[in-house]
Amino acid sequence: MDDVVKELDHGSSINPQFDYYAYPKYEFDYGVKDLKTGDIKNQWETRNGDVVKGSYSLKESDGTTRVVEYTADDHNGFNAVVKKVGVASHPIVYAKTFVYGHDLDNLAHSDNIIKVKHL
């Protein structure tokens, strides 16, 4: 065991010039707009010390956009406000009808088409 400890101490690659306690400060943003898949989203965030602020949004499958704005700090913790922008719309779905029961063999697999609309 002493040999392992000596080897680790001897072969240490810690750089004493690197500041492991640097002041945390950054900002970033990015976005995706893929019309083929419908993947549409954005995000940005900033940090200055222990205060983080940011927002992200994404296009929902119902056509609305979800927007989340958030802050975090030592005093207030994490807080987020979620908004839904736009009016939800669902596509019209066409479905075949199937009728089951006694004496209904002729109607068992109808080709009647019904229109279903989600409200």
UniProtKB/TrEMBL annotation:
Keywords: Cuticle. GO terms for molecular function: structural constituent of cuticle. One of its GO terms (cellular component) is extracellular space. InterPro entries: CHIT_BIND_RR_consensus, Insect_cuticle, Insect_Cuticle_Struc_Prot. Transmembrane segments: none annotated. It comes from the Eukaryota. This is Cuticle protein 19-like. The gene is LOC119637904.
